[in-house]
Amino acid sequence: MTDPTPDAASAAEDGTDLLAVRRAKLDRLRAAGVDPFPHDFDGVEPIAEVRARHEGLEDGAETDVRHRIAGRLRARRGQGKMAFLDLDDRSGRIQLQAKLDVLGPEVMSRLLDDVDLGDLIGIDGVAFMSRRGELSIRVEAITVLAKSLRPPPDKHHGLQDQEVRQRRRELDLIGNEDTRRAFVMRSRIVSEIRRFLDGEGFLEVETPVLQPLYGGALARPFTTHHNALGRDLYLRIATELYLKRLIVGGLERVYELGKNFRNEGISHKHNPEFTMLEWYEAYADVEDAADRLEACVSHVAAAVGYEGEIRWTEPWARKTLAGAIEEETGIDVLAHRTSESLAAVVRASDRTDVDPDGRTWPQLVDDLLSKDVEPKLQQPTMLFDYPVELSPFAKRKRTETGEDTGLVERFEAFALGMEIANAFSELNDPDEQRRRFEEQARLELEGDDEAQQYDESFVEALEQGMPPTGGLGLGIDRLVICMTGRSTIREVVLFPTMRD
RNA sequence: GCCUCGGUAGCUCAACUGGUUAGAGCAGUGGACUCUUAAUCCGAAGGUUGAGGGUUCGAGUCCCUCCCGAGGCACCA
Fold it and tell me: What is the end-to-end Cα distance of chain A in Å, rounded?
């Protein structure tokens, strides 16, 4: 910045311009020969470790243990010959005691007059227990580590404004302990998932985000353009098809944990970019995927110390989709296999408010599921046996007679009234897969802009021979919502998509 | 995309059915204070009430348009 104008200088003096006040202090530090942005600060101890070291110290007890800590200054009490301050680091908070007779007038003034709330400072000092039983550090030396030129969020109320909390997540993290806890929990959940799958012999892999065709889910994509190749590419909506090619290649157990992108609405459970885990296991089917999902999620819940209302431990409830719909609505969708007959029953029912006009049979089934069943599934529940029309990559359901039920071997898992996972016995018959793509192509011609694109290279991969395979997708954001007790995806995504 | 609600000081919130000069706490600022912890006490300061237009003697408050957010619907795993 340039020199403050006379107006700015007077605004700094009377304290009306908060930014100018801070810049004036920055200038004072520099004038006193203090570097307000030094390069490092060696030998810092996490505050939590300092606390652990002195656990059980009696009220009023002194120690001769010297500590070096660093963090953001959060609060300050007292302005005279002694002051107390609170310092935050990533591991916790600790009280500092600054005494004039220890520091001398010059250092005391630096701490009280030139350092602001929100500044990053380093402290050398001795631990003691205050008379009121608060572990504290008696400051012997301070080091300015970075001047904060903007005021921090309210020290007591934190930052409440939803918009600012999401657009300026750093402020949310500084001001709101809850937010910090939730995102620490998210990181631990993700690393426990990796630990679990790695322990089961899975390989973590990376497949393309930029794809010439989009597939593996029913959704509209984001489109972008590659200049040198002179062609459009799509941001992936799923990792499914590439991962199955790796199963063909013999990797046998693979997973990918990363972002998918879907060009659709934003809601409390939808963000345009979201984190998905997909795994594929050779010589396994949908039942194996279900067992592994239970094992994985209950491991994660225990490892991160989940303490909420959801019972993640095995076994989870398992039902059929049709059974669950009948339970909630009294409608047996399998007894009415055409859109007309199902629509008639839906219309006649007083237990659902689904509007059947213009809906196909699979759409109606989906409507009944999402309106009448899904909201009821608060505890972890897996629903099996989905209509083939909604599942272009799943194997048809085995039956004793060999008859075609129109169902596939697939389940979706739900918790807190949200879908969190989706799995099936992967279709590995290339001719059947080709027919499913052709059916999707027909739907696209009819104007369904979410139909699957015909992916010939994927069919060729299946022609190479894919072993029987169980695959699963787990929505990480939604799992984190459940495990952190948050109500929306925006609370568990660091920087959710916002308007400009 | 549609409906409803909201946007007031840097932050957290007030302001009855349209009526004096839009209030308070925190932060900041000047001062007092050597065990405080949402420290306390005294003083002064801080506002284009999201933006723009309109109705009215008078608008934070009513109407219109736009921006941003929240909730719901639609779309969608």
Answer: 27
